[in-house]
Design a protein that fits this description.
single chain; 798 residues; mainly beta; Immunoglobulin-like; 4 helices; flat
Length: 798
Amino acid sequence: MTVLTRKRGAGALALLVSAALLIPQAAYAAGDTPVVYDDPQRFTTGHIDAFNFMVDADGSPRLVLKEDVTGYHVHRTPESVELYVKSQAISKNVPAGGVPAGAPGELYYLPLSQDHSLIWPGWDNQAVASFYGAGTTTDINITSVEGPGEIYLWTQGTFGGTQQLLTDSWKLPGTIHQTFGAHVHANWGFTQPGEYTLTVQGSVNSADGTQRTLTNTATYRFVVAPEPTAVEIRGAENVVEPGAEVTLTAAQLPEGADFPTYEWYTRASDSEQWERVTGAAPSITVQAIDGAQYRAVVAGGMDYATRAPLRVESAPVTIQAPAAPTPSVTIGRLAHHYHSGSPIVLTATAEHAPEGAAYRWTLQRTDQDAPVVLEQTGAEVRLTAEQALHGAVARVSLVDGETVLAESQAATIDVDDHGAAPLQKIAIQGVADHYHTGDTVSLTAVVDPASVLTRFEWYVQKQGQTAPELIEGENGSTYAFEATEELVGAAVIAKLTFDNGEVYVESPPVLIALDDHHEEPVATTLIVEGLADEYAVGDTATLTAVQDPETGEDHYHWFIKRAGDAEYSVIRGALSATLEHTVTAEDAGALIVAKLYDHDHAVIAESEPVALNVAVPGGQEPEPTKPAEAPAPQTGAALDGVPAGGIQLSDTTAAPGQVITVQVGAERAGEWIAAWLFSDPVLLGGDWLRVNAQGAFAVTIPADAEPGEHRLAVFAADGTLVGWETLQVSAPVTGGAGDDAADDDTAAAPRDNALAVTGAQVGGLAASGLALALLGAAVVLAARRRRGGRVRVIAAAE
């Protein structure tokens, strides 16, 4: 690192001594002194007056930095700012006439005219010139430069060429002598990248040169980024899956190099031409194709020999995305032929199977139009040889979910029993000794040993027929039908067939016998046993119907008749001698009977009714049932002569649409009542209302209720008056000018508008209070509790 220091002579010392004699003519008015910021900043572009004179409040000159990057004429301490010169500033092969004599033709160049991609440093002494009076001159003394290279400073001459700005040199350190107030920019040239520190002090000189005032000593820091000498592409180091996304990043070397322009190129192989890739960013994301090559080019600065930006090209990188080996699957060799009953083992062998892959086996017999997928998914499938499998073709696929990765060749199964009949035999099971007319005959065809065939045909030959008749549509292993007189002595045959209908094996016939006995049913008595003395809601009542004597019949139905029912109703699903019934509160006092039927569904016997004694929780009687009829119309005449009372209202004044709570007393909990509003009779809620456990219920005042005095009356389910109270209905709440104002933007107006805004806010708060009151009433109505084993909607009083 080179350190250049320019020493100050005796004349400077004399001027320093007399600096105090240069007294300003006037002081700044309070508040006129600019704010000088000290927070750290890094400027990479923009207009910057690096050496900027200002006058402090006490009239003394001060050297600061002024910038238009973060604002307009923002003043900052020089020490808080890093002036960053990008790699873009590098210039090569600069013509000799374009730089000062002795300056190299390669340097980091900040031009006299603004380049918006770079910083544009200059200086400004106009503030002190206007403050200290006409004829005032200034000096900017760069007393030392510490950095890796040299800094040149120059401007253009009137007729071209270079012109010196420093008093006795082309490069810093040195002095910039300003004979008048001016805002100046210049050419800057840095010979090496790195960090440069400038020590600078300004001086303000009187017109006659006899007086001098020094500014503070300030430190300026320029950081020059290196030009890139190489580009390294990162992100292609690893092997990836074909088609995966790969992000490639072009890194400029050495670190800190930052040419602004990026170009990307690709080609499929060494023998192909490079093609430009869309995109001009440091990174690109591509789809991985094995062997694809990429290279990057960064460009910036200026080569004056070619009048084009400098370009640095990376070495190519190659994407590594080899295709996965193609999976394959084969079936192991089968035996030359198999005999019925011997095992057939199908074995799959997979190559290059991905993790998670599975097997899908199919088998297609000669009678099938398409292969059938087997349930087995492992590498081995075991079958039992039978003649139905002769000529069947087995295949296996290697699958990943629903995707088929590979398929095997076909493997044909050869079963040869050398002329023997199939081993499979078929028998019909489920035949009763005899049936009664109307009974259901349920038959099952059983194959032993089991077969791969699943299709059956059923035949019936009635007495007098010469051949069995096919039952159309019956192709399962079971066959059910009703026993009728025409089937007496009928023969039933089952046949196991191939899917194409070809018969494989046939059962021996079975005969259907009918015997209705023609005997009178045995008289018996039904007695219901198991009745408990008392049940709680939720208990299971287990009752058993006992025959005396036994008849052999077992066809039962159970019936129940609850309080208020006109007749018995069947208990669904209760078809045996034992009834299991879950007790509810409505079952209190219910009567239950059992009936026994014969096979013709005629009643053989009926039990005496038994009554359920149900204990209601809390010792209470069962809850009243909601009246079947709507509340009877009422008029205000029902209140004549009856003093107010008997009920309490949560609010005696309410607005239309408001919810209020009516208290009628806890002794009426669970009862059904009707609430009416007079003078024009209105049934509140439009139906019967339920009193909650606290003896209260809630009603909504109709939205069209007329303002004024009303009477709210409550009537019991039997029509008797419970009580009444006077209710004052207030006028409806409507929005006004205040409400509109509360939503207007003037709510955020300055202080002088506060009076008008306050009026608007009062209206808004009143409306909000009403909304909260209505919301509270709605929440009250939503309360629930469980009473007597049944869910009931209640409304709690406020």
